[in-house]
Amino acid sequence: MVMSFRVSDLQMLLGFVGRSKSGLKHELVTRALQLVQFDCSPEVFKKIKELYETRYNKKGSEVAPPPPAPPRAEALALHSSYDRGSAVPRTLPAASIDYPALYGKYLNGLGRLPPKVAKPEVRLVKLPFYTTLDELLKPTELVPQNNEKLQESPCIFALTPRQVELIRNSRELQPGVKSVQVVLRICYTDTSSPQEDQYPPNIAVKVNHSYCSVPGYYPSNKPGVEPKRPCRPINLTHLMYLSAATNRITVTWGNYGKSYSVGLYLVRQMTSAELLQRLKTIGIKHPELCKALVKEKLRLDPDSEIATTGVRVSLICPLVKMRLSVPCRAETCAHLQCFDAVFYLQMNEKKPTWMCPVCDKPAPYDQLIIDGLLSKILTECEDADEIEYLVDGSWCPIRAEKERSCSPQCPILVLGSSEVNGLLATPNGTGENGKAPADVVDLTLDSSSSEEDEEEDEEEDDDDEGPQPKRRCSYEKGLVSAC
What we know:
This protein has 13 helices and 17 strands. By secondary structure, it is of the alpha+beta class. Strand 3 (172-174) and strand 4 (177-178) form a beta hairpin. Helix 1 packs antiparallel against helix 3 and helix 7 crosses helix 9 (341-350). It is found in: Nucleus.
């Protein structure tokens, strides 16, 4: 039917599905044939039949030429791109269709069709904690079936025996959770760049006869700030039939204008310990390269009025305020300060953000490096929490401030000494504000001294003559804190 269409019919068909209507007739025929073989649907077939009947009903008694009939085997392949019993498309391999043999004679004598223009596909970002083993369903757009806000999109597929064995023989990360999983990933339908996982509103996922749990929202403590939802792959493995039986997955989603795509993958989930071991194997930067980076950072700039002679680097992790064990940073970071890879990976395993805790810029796993120079320094310098890099690439520990912080801020004065007495009494025998000096007990002298005993007796006799004055603390003016 398509091969018998005129230019106007081809343009109406291509316009119906939103394809380009410009070009010569053989270009329009090529697009229409690709549409029939790869992106056909019951609606498209209905439109083709309608255009065909409209064209030849106008001719009245004129006998319409029969549509070209391809060989039987190829005719089956032509219409196997859709399943009348379900709405699940099956991809037809391009190599199974011989364009010149089937349609070359209809294209104005051309023996070869132009190569098929590949439509850009939706791509999802790679996740460090998931290694993709198989792609069960390429990212497919969720198409609304009606004008309702709540839509349902079904998908039917079956696992191969090899995939079932991989799941069954995988280790358990925790009771009931296998490391090899079938996961559902959802993202925006955007082909410009790899997309991060993003859930549509009102999402619900049903596997066979049971609903699968979907990560909820993080509570927000700030007023006026909407709670955020961690969008990550949804594990469907525990609800699937691990056999040759088909599994039915139904995604319920809210249709509010934005377009989403879903994909199914067989993955192996990694742990933070496994990623750390991989980083130690392939991500260590040689100490000499790190030393050259230090020199570059401290290289004198002739246009700068301030000469940088050194830069300080803390040996304390900014994440947990503990001494670094595996110092790392992203290669894209401009600073020399490192954070601990162990805690960084554990933090992103629970709540993936992959943001540098020093400069608050993206620090994805594949850009992390272990600083070999700082690792060496950590083993050689165990009694300091900070070092300073010098312009020649060398380093020195910073201990002076630490020692001063533990030393007395001012000298300790011994009570009873001449210096203290000088502070408390003036030469004319009076203290501050003209008052009598306070009594000072010299604890350094022997209590059996006869001279001191006599002086104390005389003072007591003088005090008995009048009312007993209120005594001030003898250490108020003379005692100086040691810290």
